[in-house]
Amino acid sequence: MTDEAATPAAAITDVETDDAFRRRPRQSRGQKRVELLLDAAADVIAEHGIDAATAEAIAIRARTAKGSLYQFFPNRDAVLAALALRYADEMRAIHERAFPMDPHGMALERLIDRIVNPLAEFHDRNPAFRRVFATIEGPADDTRSAPVRLRGQLFDSFVDRLDVLFGSRNPKLPARDRRRAALICASVGQSILARRSRAPAADKKPLLDDLKRMLVGFLQPLLNVQQARPRRTATKRVKP
Amino acid sequence: MTDEAATPAAAITDVETDDAFRRRPRQSRGQKRVELLLDAAADVIAEHGIDAATAEAIAIRARTAKGSLYQFFPNRDAVLAALALRYADEMRAIHERAFPMDPHGMALERLIDRIVNPLAEFHDRNPAFRRVFATIEGPADDTRSAPVRLRGQLFDSFVDRLDVLFGSRNPKLPARDRRRAALICASVGQSILARRSRAPAADKKPLLDDLKRMLVGFLQPLLNVQQARPRRTATKRVKP
Amino acid sequence: MTDEAATPAAAITDVETDDAFRRRPRQSRGQKRVELLLDAAADVIAEHGIDAATAEAIAIRARTAKGSLYQFFPNRDAVLAALALRYADEMRAIHERAFPMDPHGMALERLIDRIVNPLAEFHDRNPAFRRVFATIEGPADDTRSAPVRLRGQLFDSFVDRLDVLFGSRNPKLPARDRRRAALICASVGQSILARRSRAPAADKKPLLDDLKRMLVGFLQPLLNVQQARPRRTATKRVKP
Amino acid sequence: MTDEAATPAAAITDVETDDAFRRRPRQSRGQKRVELLLDAAADVIAEHGIDAATAEAIAIRARTAKGSLYQFFPNRDAVLAALALRYADEMRAIHERAFPMDPHGMALERLIDRIVNPLAEFHDRNPAFRRVFATIEGPADDTRSAPVRLRGQLFDSFVDRLDVLFGSRNPKLPARDRRRAALICASVGQSILARRSRAPAADKKPLLDDLKRMLVGFLQPLLNVQQARPRRTATKRVKP
DNA sequence: TATGAATGAGTGTTCATTCAT
DNA sequence: TATGAATGAACACTCATTCAT
User: Fold this and answer.
1) Cα-based angle D148, D150, D151 (whole degrees, multiple of 5)
2) Overall fold of domain B3-20+80-223
3) Is 70 exceeded by the pLDDT of residue A15?
4) Residues C63-76: pLDDT tens digits?
5) Are D48 and D60 in contact (CB under 8 A)?
6) Is the CB of C143 within 7 Å of strand F?
7) How far apart are CA A105 and CA A73, in angstroms?
8) Domain-wise residue ranges, chain A
9) Contact D48 C141 (CB under 8 A)
10) CA of C195 to C1' of E9 (A)
């Protein structure tokens, strides 16, 4: 179980670790500057989109000289890649907490709550994330840019997690169906959560409820086959 | 009824009609050239992404001189806008056929089939569409480019259509809930259809079925309330 | 004989023909602009050295916008490569005239005159050539720049020519010695001619004479072994 | 005699003495650091060319911080200038040993051996020297960099030495011819020695022999006039 | 003092748009 | 009118040099 969960988690973090930095900053000043630059990049992306996140725009936003950016990053894409990595790290932490060790004893609704709620909060908190990394666009070109590649890896690792989870919930479910269900849930979740974050405050709660209801409705027939489980003596039926 | 459908349809087409063309070509010669350019733009976008759709790339793909492009379009964005318009036109035709005059007598499943199937086919046929226009990213900046604006308008008009449809299916449904349901369906549909088009052939059918099942499950409680009333006693057909 | 001469001649011209141009200019205007740019590059190099031949400096010198340079050349190095090609073409013409079809009947002094004189004139006329292409620096790095590569190829093809010539003069001369002699003559010639072109006018003639005397002295023992040739009936000893 | 030799020797060393060092390091510690930096610069130049010898590359190669470089040198050119000075010092030592006190009693061949051999060895040992300082390119611009200026001075001082030497060998030789001969010998020597150092091992000895033979042949008529006097009648010496 | 971060002018390159032919 | 050249503003990236720690 731990292993199953560990693999995809690692997949997130190992993304592009190699050349993400031109040189790892050795003075605390540099560490701070790197964070500043990533924050600046996120701000620019959030406000003006990824195409506006030029080296200069990022530098200006970070109140830094353009050259400083290249002290730590080999090129502009590396900044975005590092930003993605930072998101990936936080994502991993969220996943680690969200995906329960033993999901068998948990009602589907609660399970979904546990996963969806922190993701919703994450989307709310990171406009740049939803703007760049919560997109559907797929690979069609060899000149893939780092952010696009990372976006795919982030998504895939989330699908992996769901895949494993669904498998442990219903081992009878054929692998193909399981993976497809995972893909759909990830896709729908990403899509609705991104939209929800931009919705007026009044719609946020209902949108989240609707998403959950949709996922429950979709997953129920796939995962709850073994409804009458023997080890539950007392009633306490989580779901009627 | 016709009106209800016409309004959002018009919304799609009237988008940017004013300056989209520098000079509306009346001769079929020019018309053909425009179509060629739009085809070329779509091809380039499909293969290399929107950033690669430079004026020169489009012209080369269309086997035309760069200058000719500006004979018909005031600027590069106008090309993309025109492409979006062309998609919008086809979309409108699809909607016109898909959204039935009298949806009352139609089972929800059939209704969804009617709308989703042609859209799925449309996504399959237009890789450039899903690559650029089937994205979530929303407006956040004044310097927004035409394609982004149009993408939003396309989406909104689809939501409008669904909104109207849902309203005619269940007039009791509060406007706010209705619109939200429409938004969710549009968002989910777009997301899954775009992904489906890039999926391996074997997955295409199941993905479509899953999407439909998901939508039915989500809409059933919202739209089928009135149907159940007369035959309430016996059957309880809601979910076999 | 014709073949032997043709091979190295071709070697000069085939240098980098492929991507020297981003796009071959199709209007006569463009042709002129290309020539202008090459002239400008040559001027800048002649006056300020190759490091000063920046894209901007060349453009300014050619009274052109910086961007125009990239209309015809894929990058800055390609300009220098094209310049080298132009030199190579002229060189080839010079060689074609200088290297006689049948050198057997010609005194060594005359042979050398025929080769050295036009080269001296060429060096005089092309300061940029001697500044960049008449240098010794050899390969030591993979990131070879086009001009350096071309410089080597130009030199090598000249050595090839001499090699062939020496071989036809004295077939008994071992290939290794022949090639070495060719290398030395080319190297010495290049070195002295470049220096001569920068010398005060009064020194130009004596420097040329000295170079020739040096070459004659060096080559005499290698090439004139078969001194008593039967087909020369009358005395008319060109060189005692 | 000592004076004659001393003047050009001094000329080599006095070059740029003033500002070459920002602060002349008195502690052996600093001295060592300076030597390390110069070694590093030479290495980088030898391996990747002078353009690659950036302040950072040199510092990294010297396992030093970039800032330390500026502790000892006012700017990057000063590093190269100091390197040139170091070469000049070694050169001067070589010259001091090579240029005999009384060359009158020495055969021309031995004289040339004495000068050429250590220079050949020096070229072999110092790839950076031949890469940067053994070039023909002459001054033509005020913005000339220190290395170029120094390269010229090194060469000139060698010419001076030869000039003096030739004068002492044949006082009758007109100053103009003498200086020209010195120039030619220096130029040819530099050119061939640089090439020889990059030649395959098997060619090194023959190339050196050829160079010597060439120089002997060239200088014989100019310097050995007084020796030939007694046997003038018969032989018809090649060029009196 | 030694280290490595900060700075910004400069260079190569792209590309939308205009213009001459 | 169609073609492709001309233009210049923008952007990515480098590197000598200065500065804070």
Assistant:
1) 65
2) Tetracycline Repressor; domain 2 (1.10.357)
3) no
4) 999 999 999 999 99
5) no
6) no
7) 46
8) 3-20+80-223
9) yes
10) 36
